[in-house]
Amino acid sequence: MIIRVCTALLAALLAVVAAPPPTTAADPADPAPPRTVSAADPAPPRTVSAADAAPPRTVSAADPAPPRTVSAWLPYWDQEGAYQDALRHAAQLHTVSPFWYQAISAERIDGHPGAGAQRVVDGLHAAGIAVVPTVMETMKPGVLAAILADPARRAAHITALLTVVGSRSYDGLDIDYESIAPTGDAGYLAVRADYATFLTELCGRLHALAKSCVSTVSPQTAATGRIWDYAAIGRAADRVRIMAYDRHPRGGDPGPLAGVDWYEEILRRATALIPPARIEMALPAYGWDWPAGGGGSARHVTMREAEALRVAEGVPYTLDPVSMTPHFGYTDGEGVAREVWYQDARGIEADLPVLARYGVRNTSLWALDFEDAAVWPVLARA
Fold first, then answer.
1. What sign does the CA torsion over 12, 116, 91, 285 have?
2. Do 91 and 128 meet the contact criterion of CB atoms below 8 Å apart?
3. How far apart are CA 259 and CA 262, in angstroms?
4. Domains of the chain by range and CATH?
5. DSSP 4-49
6. Could you say which of 73, 83, 109, 126 is the most buried, measured as most Cβ atoms within 10 Å of its Cβ?
7. What is the C-alpha to C-alpha distance for residues 246 and 342, in angstroms, rounded to an integer?
8. Is residue 382 over pLDDT 60?
9. Average pLDDT of the residues in 42-60
C-alpha cells in the first residue's frame, strides 16, 4: 500500500506534466475504497481445517482461456504494481479503470499523481483491455447536489468530463460520485432525480463519441443506497458497478465486508431494476484491521496482507458461516487486541452461486495488486 518512493515519484512527475494538475487526495499510504454503509452483526465463527481452507483449483494449461468477464480498478498509489497485475491477467480483464481523476468543482477536474500515463494506457490497449478511467469526487456537503440541480452548471460539468475523456485515447469514463449518498430526507428525491438526469445526459454525450459510460453506485439494501435511481441509471449506463463491500465500514464495528446473505438482498433489488447483463458486482480484495470490539478507525489491509498477517501470527483460518468471509483476532506489538475481517478466494467462490442465480456474470475487483492469485480462477467461473 506504500507508494514506491523512487520510481513511482519519477513516473508520477513525468505523467503529471501531461495530465491535469494533481489534487490533494486521501492518505495514499492508507487509502479507503469507495464508501458504502450498513449495520449487521456477524454470526458466530467456525474454525476451518487446513484441508477445508485449501485455495480453489488453479487453471491448468489444458483448460480453455478464461472469459473476459472482469473489470478492475487500478489505484494510482500502486500504479506500477497494479499495471503489471493487469497485464498478467489480461485474458480475463475486459476493462481497467485507473483511479486517476477527481472532480473539484463544476468546471475543474484534477488528476491524481500519474494520471494519464501514456505507457499504461498504451500497454493496456496492446493487451486488449479497454481503459475507462474513474472520476471520483470529495466535495463538501451540498456542493455536488447544487451543481447537478442547475442546468447550466451541470452542462459545464459534463463539458469538463468530456475534456478528460478526450485528453487521451480513453474508451469511456467511470463516474464514482458519492458525496450525495448521505442526503437527508427533505432533499432525497430531488437529488436522486438530478443525478439520474446528469448521468443520462453524460452517457448520451459519451455514446455520441463512441465512448462507454460506466456508473459506480452503492448497494441498495433495506438500510443503504437509497440515493441511486437504479432504473434510470441502468437505462443510461453501459455498465453499473455495484460496490458490494464495506458492509461494516472502517469507522464502524468489526464484521464482514461482504457476504452471501448480503449479496442475495443486493441482487434481488438490483436485478429488478437493472438488466443483469449491465450489472458488474464489485468485489473486495482487501479487509479492515479493527481494534477488537470496535471504537476506533480500522487499518486498511489488502487481501494478501491480511492472509500474511494471519500466518505470521499463527492464527487458524476461520470462516464466518453466514457471510462466508474469513476473519481472525490477534494482539499487536503494543498489546492491543485486534480483529481482522477480509475477503479471499474462498469467500468469493462462495458468492458466485448468488450471482449466477440472478443472471449476473460480470464482476469488478477493488483493486488490482490487492488480491491473491487464487482469485483469478475463481472469477473465471463467475
1. positive
2. no
3. 5
4. 7-380 (3.20.20.80)
5. PTTHHHHHHHHHHHHSPPP---S-TTSPPPSP-----PPPPPEE--
6. 73
7. 10
8. yes
9. 38
The single residue listed with the C-alpha cell 480453455 is: 64
Q: Are 287 and 354 in contact (CB under 8 A)?
A: no
Residue length of the chain: 382
Please give the Cα distance from 28 to 77 (Å, whole number): 6
CB neighbour list of residue 310: distance below 8 Å, 6 or more residues apart:
317, 326, 328, 330, 340
Whole-angstrom distance, CA of residue 345 vs CA of residue 367: 14
17 residue type, one letter: V
- Rg (C-alpha) for the chain, rounded Å, is 20
Q: If you write DSSP's letter for every residue of 314-369 in order, what string do you get?
A: TPPPEE-TTT--BEEEEE-TTS-EEEEEE--HHHHHHHHHHHHHTT--EEEEE-TT
* 280 closest CA partner among 248, 244, 249, 247: 244
Residue 249 is placed in which grid cell? 465500514
pLDDT tens-digit map of 139-171: 999 999 999 999 999 999 999 999 999 999 999
Q: Check residue 63 and give its pLDDT.
A: 59
With cell 488453479, the residue in question is 58
Strands 337-342 and 327-331: antiparallel
